[in-house]
Amino acid sequence: MGQVRVVPKLVDHDERRRSITAAAWRLIAARGIDAANMRDIATEAGYTNGALSHYFAGKDEILRTSYEHISEATDRRISEALGDATGLDALRILCREVMPINEEQLLEARIAASLWPRAMYDEQMAATNRRTMDNWREQMAIFLEQAREEGTVGDIDVTIVVEQLLNMMMGMQILGVLTPGETSSERQLEMLEQFVAAL
């Protein structure tokens, strides 16, 4: 009788990394960045503390990956929501996907706001932030140029309008987390519409 060969179970490395990152997200959103230590992240993800070292070099790498995933998730939503939209319609869509106007986006804003102080000093996180902001600036500028060609905006300075919009959205992320009553989703959408109407 032949010997039974045991085939080792295949481990989806990327899936494990995603589940660990998601656990870190939940901890940061619920209790802040200081709660996201390796032991608690491992417990939240359902792994032993030592098992995390197979997927991440340490807490810093988990936080960097979390920051990257927030940017990627937002960009993915923007891309899916845009469809064939152009001009001001496309501009509104992009802004709405960044603004914390639903539970998913508010969760992302809480995590992003917790990680921003690190992004000021961590070169990799700073690079992620620059890529995201530059990408949004470029897209918004394209949409505003389209709106100008379509005749739906006046003689605007596109660069200034893009910065005004970006600053408004980042402010909404902060205030949507800190003062959700005053900076409700309804108020955010109203501010966006008034801003766009003034163009």
From TrEMBL:
<keyword id="KW-0805">Transcription regulation</keyword>
<keyword id="KW-0238">DNA-binding</keyword>
<protein>
    <submittedName>
        <fullName>Putative TetR family transcriptional regulator</fullName>
    </submittedName>
</protein>
<dbReference type="GO" id="GO:0003700">
    <property type="term" value="F:DNA-binding transcription factor activity"/>
</dbReference>
<feature type="domain" description="HTH tetR-type">
    <location>
        <begin position="14"/>
        <end position="74"/>
    </location>
</feature>
<dbReference type="Pfam" id="PF00440">
    <property type="entry name" value="TetR_N"/>
</dbReference>
<dbReference type="InterPro" id="IPR050109">
    <property type="entry name" value="HTH-type_TetR-like_transc_reg"/>
</dbReference>
<dbReference type="GO" id="GO:0000976">
    <property type="term" value="F:transcription cis-regulatory region binding"/>
</dbReference>
<keyword id="KW-0804">Transcription</keyword>
<dbReference type="Pfam" id="PF13977">
    <property type="entry name" value="TetR_C_6"/>
</dbReference>
<keyword id="KW-0678">Repressor</keyword>
<dbReference type="InterPro" id="IPR036271">
    <property type="entry name" value="Tet_transcr_reg_TetR-rel_C_sf"/>
</dbReference>
<feature type="DNA-binding region" description="H-T-H motif">
    <location>
        <begin position="37"/>
        <end position="56"/>
    </location>
</feature>
<dbReference type="InterPro" id="IPR009057">
    <property type="entry name" value="Homeodomain-like_sf"/>
</dbReference>
<dbReference type="InterPro" id="IPR001647">
    <property type="entry name" value="HTH_TetR"/>
</dbReference>
<dbReference type="InterPro" id="IPR039538">
    <property type="entry name" value="BetI_C"/>
</dbReference>
